[in-house]
Design brief:
There is one protein chain. The chain is mainly α. It is built from 13 helices and two strands, in the order ααααααααααββααα. It has a two-stranded antiparallel sheet with strand order 1-2. Strand 1 and strand 2 form a beta hairpin. Helix 2 packs antiparallel against helix 4, helix 6 runs parallel beside helix 8 and helix 6 crosses helix 10. The radius of gyration is 21 Å and the shape is globular. 35% of the residues are buried. It binds Phenylacetyl coenzyme A. The site of Phenylacetyl coenzyme A has 29 residues, from helix 2, helix 6 and helix 9.
Length: 308
């Protein structure tokens, strides 16, 4: 098959499956994006995992525990989708540990209070959903099917975060202040999850041509802002952007400029928690070696029994 026939297949909205012919650039692009997505889910367990033992009630603890477990499951679907492209889980983890694979910038910010659990669910999962609903229509079959499954769980995550924020916003003045403080700290980093502006995004061209991404970074960012601003108004919290204003003509909110220097610093490994997150992942991976060895030995034993 040639590049031309492949592109015709993409243009006809046909899904590409693991055994289909694909250009090497398409395969590499997917391995990069899907693995980055998988690493985000796994590293993303850390900020919330830190609060499981400090949840304010048994109900809150059970919900948070279930959410963090879901993130682990999402990581596993995504690693599996990535492995269908001829790369092993070990290689993917090694790329993360060597600093050659990225994960979402948002997880390099600390979770300082219980209200941050609300802000993460509401804003971070909210942003993730906007992106992932769009990715349900991505051209690579296993990634698309993974996204459909993941989106179902993400909407529960978003609602549990919004519930925490709504409860705190109508609580004592101190609780409302905590909720506002969490919104102030998480707003801009959540907006940054959508990546650089389209004009500065080196990957968007191929991603759109190959229908890996179905909407650009700026389109998705705008859609997230338009959805989220009215939600903040309903619970009486203020979005920390003085330039935020409904634009009747565009039918969208206008918003202020992001701090791009901060964005690229965090993406390139110099955010508040980059070192801590990676060190924790390495430690957990090393500590889990005996589990991987034991399950491998068990699988080999089962195979021998089946063959005998
Ligand atoms: N952080 O040309 P573009 C979640 C990198 S899941 C870090 O625009 P692209 C669930 C980009 O990778 C959240 N790196 O690239 C959850 C590229 O790197 P390269 C994760 C970023 O790929 C919730 C370079 O900059 N979601 O949160 C970021 O077309 C709560 C140039 O950028 C996904 O990963 C960033 N924010 O667009 C879990 C979705 N932005 O090539 C736990 C899938 C850009 O130099 C708790 N990924 N970069 O290595 C995507 O949709 C895309 O990859 C984008 C970036 C939109 C992130």
């Amino acid at each position: 098959m040639s590049d031309k026939i492949f592109q015709e297949k993409i243009d006809a909205e046909k899904k590409i499956e693991p055994k289909d012919w694909m250009p090497e650039g398409y395969r590499r692009h997917l391995v990069r994006q899907i693995s980055q997505h998988a690493h985000s889910e796994i590293i993303g367990m850390q900020p919330e995992g830190n609060w499981i033992t400090r949840a304010p009630s048994l109900r809150a603890k059970m919900i948070l525990l279930a959410k963090v477990q879901d993130e682990a499951g999402h990581g596993l679907y995504l690693y599996s989708a990535c492995e269908t492209l001829g790369v092993t889980r070990d290689e993917l983890i090694q790329q993360l540990h060597d600093g050659n694979a990225k994960y979402s910038s948002i997880f390099n910010y600390p979770a300082l209070s219980w209200a941050d659990m609300g802000a993460i669910g509401w804003l971070v999962d909210g942003a993730a959903i906007v992106n992932q609903v769009s990715l349900q229509r991505t051209s690579y079959g296993p990634y698309s099917r993974g996204m459909i499954k993941i989106c179902k769980e993400e909407s529960f995550h978003q609602r549990q975060g919004y519930e925490i924020m709504a409860e705190m916003a109508k609580g004592t003045p101190e609780q409302k202040e905590m909720a506002q403080d969490a919104l102030n700290r998480f707003w801009w980093p959540s907006i940054m999850m959508f990546g650089p502006q389209d004009s500065d995004s080196p990957r968007t061209g191929n991603a759109m041509k190959w229908k890996i991404k179905r909407q650009t970074n700026d389109e998705l960012r705008q859609s997230f802002i338009d959805k989220t601003v009215p939600q903040a108004e309903v619970i009486g919290l203020t979005i920390p952007d003085p330039e935020l204003k409904w634009n009747e003509k565009r039918g969208h909110y206008d918003f202020g400029e992001m701090d791009w220097e901060e964005f690229w610093n965090v993406v390139n490994g110099h955010g508040p928690c980059n070192k801590q997150r990676l060190a924790h992942h390495k430690r957990a991976h090393d500590n889990g070696k005996w589990v991987r060895n034991a399950s491998q030995a068990y699988a080999q034993k089962q195979e021998k029994i089946l063959k005998s």
